[in-house]
């Protein structure tokens, strides 16, 4: 609380302010800034405008900066009936924007088009996802756009085939570019406006290839979003703390995150469900958002008492084995260690 008794508002991290100045028409940075500025820091904040659903915790890539390849939680897709139920509850509660990627690859879910259509039919005004763009062909992307998507972000983290292969662990540079070019063209004939962007997560191994990527895709997209690689919710410990997190993390206060099991979770990038809090197969979304498990988690954020949680590793760069908040929802232990050295880049090996 501040002196006037109103919940404190968060200041924007410097990197976001700088990027907004440099890229004056960046919808993605503006949306990021809004999600921080609109966060209400109280233990029971209003239901936010945005929900992120992990439709599958499956991915076909092994990006060098991403913790996904180290996940031990079993890979599956969300139950389609559960998806419908959660989407309907969210809409009823006033949620109007839905992201369908979570921390994995949305195109790994064969029902993705149905999920998009469900959200469109419910009336969501902004349906979006981020993808590596390599699973599926033009037909798949056509189906996705015909189902009602409003925004697609392609993650292309190399500006040439070799760099891309080194970073993504897959030789899909040309396929991703081909699909991007198709989306760029086909969206012109769709009834709804479809935003198209490319993101580039920067590490020393790919930094020099950004200009080549810009040259290859600028004419196809509305924006290119580049960001330094960060420790991804405290799971990639050779990478720095994220420069986009404000003094108090806004996510528990202003974003609904749903796992493919149907759990309400504290953060989208939590691959081992350390921050899974409430099972929505049993409890309504309304009760879960305002209930004691989530209140207690937000109190810990407000008081800074995060020792033993994944958030402590994320915000402070600690390297502790985080305990799950609710082990009864599944305790998947630590991320895999075996090929961490092979797939992690960004920091010289000691
Ligand atoms: C985890 S991915 C999931 C969606 C999809 N598979 C993709 O790659 O777009 C979501 C976004 O997080 C980014 N990302 C992954 N690891 C990151 C890291 N360590 N630091 C910053 N961004 C990261 C990805 O590049 C992508 O833009
Ligand atoms: S960043 Fe996306 S594409 Fe790359 S491994 Fe992670 S989830 Fe897969």
**Order of strands in the sheet with the most strands?**
6-5-4-3-2-1-7-8-9
Computed structural class = alpha/beta
Strand content: 5-15%
Ends: how far apart? 44 Å
As an assembly, this protein is single chain
- Would you identify the regions where 5 or more consecutive residues have pLDDT less than 50? 341-350
Number of strands: 9
**What composes the largest sheet?**
9 strands, mixed
Q: What would the principal axes of the Cα set say about the shape?
A: globular
Question: What is the helix fraction of residues, given as a range?
Answer: 25-40%
For the CA atoms, what is the radius of gyration? 19 Å
Provide mean pLDDT, rounded.
92
Order of helices and strands: HHEHEHEHEHHEHEHEEEHHHH
H/I helix tally? 13
Bound molecules: S-adenosylmethionine, iron/sulfur cluster
Briefly characterize the structure.
The chain is an alpha/beta fold. Helix 3 links the parallel strand 1 and strand 2.
Q: What would you say this structure looks like, in words?
A:
The protein contains 13 helices and 9 strands. By secondary structure, the protein is α/β, with parallel strands linked by helices. Strands 6-5-4-3-2-1-7-8-9 form a 9-stranded mixed beta sheet, sandwiched between helices. Helix 8 links the parallel strand 5 and strand 6. Helix 1 packs antiparallel against helix 2 and helix 5 packs parallel to helix 7. 45% of the residues are buried. The site of S-adenosylmethionine (SAM) has 20 residues, from strand 3 and strand 5. S-adenosylmethionine binds next to strand 3 and strand 5.
Give the key terms.
33% helix, 12% strand, globular, disordered C terminus, nine-stranded mixed beta sheet, binds iron/sulfur cluster, 350 residues, alpha/beta
């Amino acid at each position: 609380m501040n002196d006037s008794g109103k919940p404190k508002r968060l200041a924007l991290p410097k990197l976001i302010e700088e990027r907004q100045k440099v890229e004056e028409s960046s919808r993605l940075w503006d949306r990021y800034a809004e999600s921080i500025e609109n966060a209400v820091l109280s233990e029971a904040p209003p239901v936010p405008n945005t929900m992120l659903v992990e439709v599958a915790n499956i991915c076909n890539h092994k990006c060098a900066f991403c913790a996904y390849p180290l996940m031990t939680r079993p890979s599956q897709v969300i139950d389609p009936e559960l998806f419908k139920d959660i989407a309907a509850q969210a809409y009823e509660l006033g949620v109007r924007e839905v992201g369908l990627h979570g921390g994995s690859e949305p195109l790994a879910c064969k029902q993705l088009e149905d999920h998009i259509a469900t959200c469109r039919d419910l009336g969501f005004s902004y349906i979006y996802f981020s993808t590596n763009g390599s699973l599926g062909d033009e037909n798949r992307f056509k189906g996705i756009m015909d189902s009602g998507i409003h925004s697609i972000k392609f993650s292309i983290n190399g500006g040439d085939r070799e760099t891309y292969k080194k970073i993504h662990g897959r030789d899909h540079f040309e396929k991703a570019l081909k699909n991007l070019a198709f989306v760029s063209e086909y969206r012109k004939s769709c009834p709804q406006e479809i935003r198209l962007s490319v993101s580039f997560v920067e590490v020393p191994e790919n930094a020099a290839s950004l200009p080549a990527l810009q040259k290859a895709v600028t004419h196809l997209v509305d924006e290119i979003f580049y960001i330094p690689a960060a420790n991804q919710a405290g799971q990639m410990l050779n990478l720095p703390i994220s420069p986009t997190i404000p003094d108090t993390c806004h996510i528990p206060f202003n974003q609904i995150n749903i796992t493919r099991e149907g759990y309400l979770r504290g953060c989208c990038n939590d691959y081992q469900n350390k921050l899974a809090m409430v099972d929505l197969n049993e409890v309504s979304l309304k009760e879960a958002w305002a209930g004691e498990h989530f209140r207690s988690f937000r109190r810990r954020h407000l008081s800074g008492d995060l020792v033993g949680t994944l958030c402590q590793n994320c915000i402070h760069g600690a390297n502790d084995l985080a305990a799950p908040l609710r082990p009864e929802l599944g305790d998947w232990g630590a991320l895999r260690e075996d090929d961490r050295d092979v797939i992690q880049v960004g920091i010289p090996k000691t």
